[in-house]
Amino acid sequence: MRNLLNFLAKYNHWFVLLLLEVISMVLLFQYNSYQGSVWFTSANYVSGSLLAWKAEVESFFSMAKVNQDLMQRNLYLEQQMNDLAAKLTEATKDSTWMRKAQSESLKHYNLIPAKVVSNRLNSPDNLITIDKGTADGVDRDMGVVCGTGVVGIVYLAATHYSVVIPVLNSRSNISCQIRGRSYFGYLNWTGGDNKLAFVDDVPRHAHFKLYEWVETSGYSSVFPPGISVGKILHVYNSPDGLSYRLQVELATDFSRLRDVCVIDNKPMQERLDVLRAAQDSLKIEEVR
Fold first, then answer.
1. In 3D, which of 234, 177, 242 has the Cα closest to residue 209?
2. Is the pTM of this model over 0.70?
3. d(CA 222, CA 220)
């Protein structure tokens, strides 16, 4: 305390000068219109500059969130474009137009946008790494899609990154159906061309045509129904002759894959839980 008092006593004239300067400035700008207008304009400029600088800083640090929103909007726009192209194809019978995409299928689900940071295509067991993990809401067994179709299923989720088993993996097995015909099968990839895969176990009584589209069936908690898989190129008999095997050209170009979205499968899981509960209750009633 004594040191503080000594400091104030030693430099008291500077504090008196500062106080008098403040008082004089207040009197000058308050009671003189010209000086007051000059100060007001300068203050506005300084304040505006500071606010502009603050806005630029906040904008810079929010770029990641803006990019995520733009990625998700681009996905929806691409789906809508494909939808319009498919309607035009149906009206004009022009098969060169793009097929209908999954806009209606995904609009009720929460999509988590992500970027591909690693994509291996030269192995029977290819894996994809994306830059989103559990901290972003991604969890194991969630479906992954892009603007044109199915990509794969989350196999392992860490805090900030996740590993995806894509369609181009020998362990991938996704339930599919022929669009508009409700004949079911399972999508498999046997290696080789990364643009081709097979749909197995399609029943022999199924009626369809070449170049019709295959889509997800929705009979799992991973993908909702209606996500594009690919179009039928060839039809083969299964080895046992009891079903068809369809060769499909995949809708997703894995060699150019950059932006994807992870489907939050909580709504699908809840729906399946309700169905299982209903089935269990029916079984209990039958026993009684």
1. 234
2. no
3. 5
Say if residue 135 is in the same domain as residue 10. Answer: no
> In this structure, are 22 and 120 located in the same domain?
no
Q: Do residue 19 and residue 151 come from a single domain? A: no
Within the chain, which residues score under 50 in pLDDT? 41-44, 47-48, 95-101
Distance, in Å, from the CA atom of 238 to the CA atom of 178, rounded to the nearest integer, reads 17
Number of domains in the chain: 2
Does residue 123 lie in a domain region? yes
Cα–chain center distance at 258: 11
- Token readout for 76 is 């929806």
Query: What tokens appear for 78 in the block?
Result: 């691409």
Per-residue tokens: 161: 């990154």
Tell me the CATH number at 230: 2.40.10.350
* pLDDT tens digits along 178-225: 988 878 899 999 988 999 999 999 998 888 889 899 999 888 778 888
- Which domain, by its residues, includes 182? 111-272
Distance CA 237, CA 225 (A): 26
